[in-house]
Design a protein that fits this description.
The protein has 157 residues and is of the alpha+beta class. The protein has a single domain, classed as Roll (Pnp Oxidase, Chain A). 31% of the residues lie in helices and 38% in strands. The chain contains five helices and seven strands; from the N terminus they run H-H-E-E-E-E-H-E-E-H-H-E. The chain has a seven-stranded antiparallel sheet. Strand 3 and strand 4 form a beta hairpin. It is globular, with a radius of gyration of 17 Å.
Length: 157
């Protein structure tokens, strides 16, 4: 792609808008045999960083405890080459296990992923509080970023 690489890069503002628009990140960590372990996760952007939550005993958490490096991919436009967009982060992962952070993530997830958004119900808040001891929040701190938006090429490759 050579000289076209710079043409398709997204600005930081474009990256943040793209991340707000999309809903699923593929997170790859190093599995116990050294092979990539890739899983789809819902996410939120907090202070410009992708955060997700998962069960503390999940394989991805075990992997990240062993080696905090992860690759996070958010992409769109898979059905037409001219529409391909995406962001890939090579990241160091911080695991947050404090209950307040986990509950706060759950409440944010409810607002982001519940159709129509809105405030979580008292039942939802209680459910998040009940789940919090079993969950952690993964915060992906970017070390290297690659982005692309093929729409910027106007169909000329």
């Amino acid at each position: 792609m050579g000289n076209k690489r710079k043409q398709i890069e997204m600005s930081e503002e474009e990256i943040q808008a793209f991340l707000e628009e999309e809903r699923v990140a593929i997170v790859s960590s190093f599995g116990p045999r050294g092979w990539p372990h890739s899983m789809p996760l819902w996410y939120q952007v907090v202070d410009g960083r992708i955060r997700s939550w998962t069960f503390a005993k999940s394989q991805k958490v075990k992997n990240i405890e062993r080696d905090p490096r992860a690759t996070v991919l958010v992409e769109a436009g898979y059905d037409q080459y001219s529409e391909l967009r995406g962001v890939m982060y090579e990241a160091e992962t911080v695991i947050h296990s404090d209950l307040d952070t986990v509950v706060e993530y759950g409440l944010g997830a409810a607002a982001r992923y519940t159709p129509g958004g809105g405030e979580p119900t008292p039942e939802m808040v209680e459910a998040f509080r009940a789940q919090a001891p079993k969950r952690v929040v993964l915060e992906f701190v970017p070390v290297h970023t690659v982005s692309w938006d093929h729409r910027k090429l106007g169909g000329v490759y």
